[in-house]
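hiii so um. not sure if this is the right channel but i have a protein structure encoded as tokens and i wanna go backwards to a sequence. like what aa goes where. can anyone help
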């Protein structure tokens, strides 16, 4: 992050604007809206800027900038078309330890003014750190559409009830639940449709019933998908915003973790191959204990919790302890990686079924029904198969698959590091041996792999086929 986003209280504070033209006027309007007392300095000041300053009982200094203009000032903005003046304002303000903004010159600024979506008292600030004002504007347009104008009224109403709710629902967790339930119910809709009286009656009614609220912890087993944060489900995102505590695996990418409620407790429970940093039984017990403390617990897992995710074991223990839980599916690695690699898992011409198989070695071998897996007209996807790749290829060939059967290995599928290696059952072990492959990887076997040439669409350059390697 280049700049720290903060909201400054400038109410009744002297704020200096150096400049008298259109740009200075725009900055002055913003400061005025936030309640600042304006001091504007410039040899020439536009009529509209002058009117704004006078209306707000501010100060006009119709002359060139002097360092003494910074006396008694809370912050300064330089908005002239003279680079030297702008630079002088910046240096002088910084020397005094004052926050300073020079319009369109991030290098001279100690703060920048973000683009804003104003639904006061809700204000959304957007900044590209000075890299692309146009992108910021586009984003602002999207947010303007997403956030109805009435959100301001909704916030005011919630603010008006805040004190009462605090005195009636005294327990912090119960209060959090109360607000969450209120905002997930019909009340916001009543405000947005203009019926504020009904909304107020509804809050009163909920408040009267709140004595019966019992704070019960609950656990959400949520699939975070294979890596691309845009593949999270809407439900997963909602729970990520509400959780008190999050237990997450190594496979959950940092980009996804950044979308979790910022003040949630984050607990990394690991699960690397051969390095289960927290044993499964301990994870099960942690989930039970945290829920019994009344917390909303998010167990965030890569892919789908019920596909090679040991989700069953975790809810088994929760059910035993009588803890309420929900399981939210995620896009499993087979599906996500195949789509992003451009490999359809089924195809009416060559694959009528698909199997998801655990390909990890146990005591040096993989105990699977190889006769079935070697058959034609299907796709077989091996999870956790990198270490056993040589065994997988050899077993399939030994059980009747042609050595020319296509096979792909997808590394870190759906992420910006995605790499697709392609070959045959015969050549793939050598290809993998000559490439620096990074976990996690998934293996796809079947005729569908040969369609990849035509269907590839994501990170096309990140494809290595055997001709490049052998
Ligand atoms: C313990 S399993 C968990 C699977 C997960 N529950 C799912 O539904 O995708 C871990 C294996 O999933 C596969 N995997 C998960 N994410 C992947 C990704 N982004 N790219 C390739 N393989 C992935 C790898 O085979 C890895 O060894």
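sure thing!! here u go:
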């Amino acid at each position: 992050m280049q700049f720290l986003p903060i909201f400054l209280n400038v109410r009744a504070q002297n704020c200096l604007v150096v400049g008298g033209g259109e740009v200075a006027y725009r900055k002055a309007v913003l400061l005025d809206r936030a309640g600042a007392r304006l001091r504007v300095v410039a040899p020439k000041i536009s009529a509209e800027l002058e009117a704004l300053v006078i209306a707000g009982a501010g100060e006009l200094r119709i002359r060139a900038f002097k360092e003494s203009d910074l006396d008694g000032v809370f912050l300064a903005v330089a908005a002239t078309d003279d680079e030297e003046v702008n630079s002088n304002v910046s240096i002088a303000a910084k020397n005094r330890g004052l926050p300073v903004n020079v319009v369109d010159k991030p290098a001279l600024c100690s703060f920048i003014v973000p683009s804003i979506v104003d639904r006061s008292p809700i204000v959304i600030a957007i900044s590209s750190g000075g890299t692309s004002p146009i992108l910021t504007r586009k984003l602002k347009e999207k947010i303007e559409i997403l956030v109805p104008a009435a959100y301001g009224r909704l916030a005011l109403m919630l603010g008006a009830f805040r004190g009462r709710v605090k005195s009636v629902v005294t327990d912090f967790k119960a209060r959090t639940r109360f607000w969450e339930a209120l905002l997930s119910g019909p009340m916001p809709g009543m405000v947005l449709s203009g019926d504020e009286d009904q909304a107020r009656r509804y809050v009163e009614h909920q408040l009267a019933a709140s004595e019966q609220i019992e704070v019960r912890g609950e656990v959400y087993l949520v699939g975070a998908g294979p890596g691309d944060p845009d593949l999270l489900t809407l439900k997963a995102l909602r729970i990520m915003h509400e959780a008190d505590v999050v237990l997450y695996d190594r496979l959950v990418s940092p980009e996804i973790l950044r979308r979790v409620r910022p003040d949630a407790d984050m607990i990394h429970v690991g699960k690397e191959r051969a390095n289960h940093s927290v044993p499964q039984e301990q994870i099960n017990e942690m989930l039970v204990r945290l829920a019994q403390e009344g917390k909303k617990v998010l167990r965030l897992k890569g892919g789908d919790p019920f596909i090679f995710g040991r989700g069953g074991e975790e809810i088994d223990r929760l059910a035993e302890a009588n803890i309420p839980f929900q399981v939210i599916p995620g896009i499993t690695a087979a599906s996500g990686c195949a789509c992003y690699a451009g490999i359809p898992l089924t195809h009416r011409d060559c694959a009528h079924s698909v199997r998801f198989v655990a390909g990890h070695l146990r005591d040096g071998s993989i105990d699977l029904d190889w006769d079935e897996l070697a058959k034609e007209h299907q796709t077989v996807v091996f999870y956790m198969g990198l270490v056993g790749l040589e065994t997988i290829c050899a077993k399939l060939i030994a059980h009747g698959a042609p050595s020319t059967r296509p096979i792909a290995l997808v590394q870190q599928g759906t992420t910006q590091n995605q790499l697709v290696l392609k070959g045959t059952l015969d050549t793939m072990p050598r290809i993998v041996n000559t490439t620096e492959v990074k976990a996690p990887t998934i293996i796809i076997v079947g005729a569908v792999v040969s369609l990849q040439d035509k269907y590839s669409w994501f990170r096309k350059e990140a494809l290595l086929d055997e001709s490049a390697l052998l």
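oh and The domain at 14-113 is CATH 3.40.50.720 (Rossmann fold).
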